[in-house]
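Hi R.,

Here's the chain you asked about this morning:
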Amino acid sequence: MRETAIEDVAAKPADRPDHSATDQVYPATRFLRLVAPLVRDALPDWERYEALELICRTECGGVVIARAELAGVRVPEPVR
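And here is the predicted structure, written out as tokens:
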């Protein structure tokens, strides 16, 4: 996860690590979207949770690096 977070922040504008352009999917968002269906299916009472977030803790508080909604996601078909 650490490497994904570093890759994600490096891909974003230096002054906006929380930046999420609608036309580009950054590495951490891509990762969270892949695991969100698996987490949802394994998590009891997943409806209580809105999303998965990757948060970078700083001296000034947390910065959301990436977010993936839990509702409306499906487990992908297994690769054969």
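One quick note: The chain has two helices and two strands.

Cheers,
M.
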